[in-house]
Specification:
There is one protein chain. The chain is mainly beta. It has one helix and 39 strands. Strands 12, 13, 15, 17 and 18 form a five-stranded antiparallel sheet that branches. Strands 33-34-30-37-36 form a five-stranded mixed sheet, with no helix packed on it. The longest helix is centred in the first third of the chain and has 17 residues. The N and C termini lie far apart (about 90 Å).
Length: about 425
């Protein structure tokens, strides 16, 4: 009996090996229909014939004609996926669309499509129609987080000798295209968005779909540029600085500056007329000062650097019964309140790349490493609570939360802008 079982087992294994099949097909560009060469194709079996069947996954690259062939596959149902830099998976109703194949015999002519990523091109000229060389162009990607719009720098480019630029590998989304110029000469222009706006709130977005492209030409007004001279205080000698010009919360431009790292004396050049906020940053310390540039250089500006600080947070629950565990001296309150801090503006860059979440301590909660600036508080409470109100004081005093507990939940909420300032 044992011999018959052993024979049957090996016979089944032999039959399974003999039943292996081949899958072949082509990868094409969904926009042009052309074959995609050197794309990575991966096939994965969806489930198995037996509970203990091992997972099956094979891959191959397409040839110059976009064709692929993968052999030695046991029969079954497979998903087929392809990938290549510069392309994305074809989306259907907002979800990736993977072909599935039920392999009972060798199968050919499987078609896999890849959508090319989007491209934004354009030309930047001055008021006389002359091309501008060396202009920095950035695509700011817009996305909605918990009902609030945020923008993130996605791609950057620089204009060539014809004033042309190209922003590529853009995923489907809305983008704001912004041009700026850090000049060391006598002329410059104020940062401008596609459509002519000088502020993000009034800028015109560009919609990029799968394989989409857009042309965003800009005409800018070049004018005389001026210099700002001054000193940085409370700095660490012989450490690098970064200077930025701010126009509101969302429009931040890197300023061209020279600094004596022994004395703190600086010169910022290429500044056009207008009201700005000049920010200096060294390591984790930063400082800001408002400046008004008229038709002359500006002297005597002082910026005091302030290290980041910690913000204590106090959470109070109302109308919630206290729960006391046997043997414990302290009562616990049901529910869980999460508090985070982020820039009050829409722009999320390397300075405010992510939420700063409050961490729990032995005495309550604290948000650590906050630089001076304007922020919004984000908060949520687990069931059955919600946050009806909050009170904010100076950076050195606690932010008080009042969380009541009706029998329903609220999605994460955001407070009005709060100012965090030193001292």
């Amino acid at each position: 009996m044992l011999r018959i079982l052993i024979f049957s087992f090996f016979a089944a294994q032999l039959l399974a090996q003999q039943a292996q099949v081949t899958l072949s097909g082509t990868v094409t560009n969904s926009k042009t229909g052309e074959p995609v060469a050197h794309a990575l194709v991966q096939v994965r079996r969806i489930g198995g014939q037996l509970a203990n069947d091992p997972p099956v996954s094979h891959s191959a690259f397409t040839d110059a004609g976009g064709a692929f062939q993968i052999g030695e596959l046991p029969p079954g149902q497979y998903s087929v996926n392809a990938s290549k830099p510069g392309f994305m998976v074809q989306m259907t109703s907002g979800r990736p669309s993977f072909p599935t194949v039920n392999l009972t015999a060798s199968t050919g002519n499987v078609l896999v499509t890849l959508a090319p990523l989007g491209v934004v091109t354009g030309k930047i000229v001055d008021q006389d129609g002359l091309p501008l060389i060396g202009v920095s162009v950035v695509a700011l990607r817009a996305q909605t987080v918990d009902g609030f719009v945020q923008v993130h720098p996605d791609r950057t480019a620089t204009t060539d000798d014809r004033g042309m630029f190209r922003l590529w590998n853009l995923s489907p989304a809305k983008y704001y295209v912004k041009a700026s110029l850090a000049q060391t000469g006598d002329e410059a222009f104020a940062p401008v968005y596609f459509g002519g706006a000088h502020a993000l709130d009034t800028a015109t977005p560009v919609e990029i779909g799968q394989g989409g492209d857009a042309k965003t030409d800009l005409t800018v007004s070049v004018e005389s540029a001026w210099k700002i001279h001054g000193f940085v205080r409370n700095f660490v000698p012989r450490r690098p600085f970064r200077f930025e010009l701010l126009n509101g919360l969302d429009d931040v431009t890197t300023a061209h500056a020279t600094v004596n790292t022994d004395t703190g004396r600086f010169e910022v050049s290429g500044v056009v007329r207008g009201s700005w906020v000049l920010r200096a940053t060294q390591d984790s310390s930063s400082g800001e000062v408002p400046v008004n540039v008229a038709a002359a250089d500006l002297d005597g500006v002082e910026i005091s650097l302030t290290p980041p600080v910690d913000i204590p947070v106090a959470v109070r629950f109302t109308d919630a019964p206290a729960v006391t565990h046997p043997g414990d001296d302290d009562a616990e309150t049901p529910g869980n309140c999460n508090v985070s801090l982020q820039s009050a503006g829409k722009l999320v860059d390397e300075r405010a790349a992510a939420f700063k979440s409050a961490r729990r301590t032995n005495t309550g909660m604290v948000i650590s490493g906050v630089s001076p600036g304007q922020y919004a508080l984000w908060f949520s409470v687990s069931e059955p609570g919600y946050v009806p109100s909050c009170q904010a004081h100076t950076i050195w005093q606690p932010i008080q939360w009042f969380a009541s507990t009706p029998a329903h939940r609220r999605r994460p909420s955001r407070s009005s802008p709060l100012m965090a300032a030193a001292g």
